[in-house]
Amino acid sequence: MIEESFKLPREVIIVEGRDDTTRLIETFGPDIKVIETGGSALNRATQARIKQAAEQFGIIIFTDPDYQGLRLRRLISEAHPTAKQAHLTPEESKAKQEGASLGVEHAAPSAIRAAIAAVAQLDTSVAVDRIPMSDLVRLQLIGHPEATKRRHAVAQEFHLGHLNGKQLQKQLALYQIDLETLTTFLRQYELEKHKEGQNNGN
């Protein structure tokens, strides 16, 4: 059960995998901001998302207390020296199954909350209202033949990662992207697309 008295951190939390994200959602609720590294490698898209998050919200590195997790922590810390560091002990992150690897996904919510609370800044920012679905449809981001391409362009511009129609509304609100900002970007996107079409026609 999520403790309602525990406020969300302002920062984006960097974890290794999907199961870690699931555990954070179970601990803090669906509005927690998370970026997954996708394992021990940091591709350019993930690096760009982390950079954007660090500049906009700040980041908390919360990788597993094993060799790969420590390696990732070092790599991210070198790129972002002001990143905050949240840690679990090997005992806290140990799976119940014998021989399983250490991981954030195995930790109790109380241990996760304590680790994050030790370094987090409470989120006192004014929440951005979710953009109505009717506007996302109007902007051809949902239910349109070009919707996938347009969502991809939005995700790249705002470093949101891969988005489907269901995730779009929530992610825009979490990362404080309002309707005006989104509309302005899509106008620019359409202008550039129109110019490309003209150049290809010449």
From TrEMBL:
Q: Which reaction does it catalyse?
A: Endonucleolytic cleavage of RNA, removing 21 and 42 nucleotides, respectively, from the 5'- and 3'-termini of a 5S-rRNA precursor
A Pfam cross-reference name: Toprim
Q: Example GO molecular function term?
A: rRNA binding
Please give the biological process terms from Gene Ontology that the record holds. rRNA processing
EC numbers: 3.1.26.8
In which broad location class does this protein mainly occur, judging by the first location in its UniProt entry? cytoplasm
Q: Which CDD domains match?
A: TOPRIM_RNase_M5_like
What Gene3D superfamilies does this protein map onto?
3.40.1360.10
Q: What's an example GO cellular component term for this entry?
A: cytoplasm
**Keyword list, A-Z:** Cytoplasm, Endonuclease, Hydrolase, Magnesium, Metal-binding, Nuclease, Ribosome biogenesis, RNA-binding, rRNA processing, rRNA-binding
Q: Which family does it belong to?
A: Belongs to the ribonuclease M5 family.
Physiological role: Required for correct processing of both the 5' and 3' ends of 5S rRNA precursor. Cleaves both sides of a double-stranded region yielding mature 5S rRNA in one step.
Name the chain's protein: Ribonuclease M5
Q: Which organism is it from?
A: Fundicoccus ignavus
